[in-house]
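User: Could you check the structure of this?
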Amino acid sequence: MAKSQKKTAAANPEIAGYEFQRTSLLDEALTHPSLSGSHNYQRFEFLGDRVLGLVIATWLLEEYPKEAEGELNRRFTALVRRETLAELSVKLGIAERLQVTPGAEAEGTKTKEAIQADVCESVIGALYLDGGFSAADSFIRKHWKPLIGVGVAVHKDNKTLLQEWCQARAVTLPRYIEIERSGPDHDPIFVIEAVVGGVGDDPVTARASGPAKRLAEQMAAESLYKKLTGEK
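Assistant: Sure, the predicted structure tokens are below.
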């Protein structure tokens, strides 16, 4: 019964600017395991992870010919980590195309960061099989370009910075509270409050909103870190 509810990619073979010739590949890449036992995104996720890693590693060698292995590795990790993939999955409209059972959708499967990241890798794997390495390389370089700029990837993320600030001062570690969620399921807006207690008499807080929890948490962490340190 679940299979009968599944929408196929034939009606819309384009995703994130790439049009699939073999729509069956896109179908599989966008099918959650809850909907199909073996015909799901997991195998393509395995492939996409490797394709993404090869493209990013090669690109970094080209972009930063004078950097040592340690610096390149920090950039690489930032570009392929789960948080980055989930962010792009939402931004590119990949996560919203994921096909799941009604029960899984009601549980918020499409909004889970790990699943958003997995399906992003799955689409890359399917794209590689459909168009070859050149197509996958072009796709990745196009959508990861804003993230590979000088200085962007080597910095620690804001949540890490905030946590380390707290640890260095032996104060309560940050908490992230979902204050509000609005908008339709395919385009939600999250309001997150970052809270640090044990600084002076009262907890210190900052709020931010974004289209994914991870993004809102990062922005709230950045705002709170700047408030605590006086950084502008």
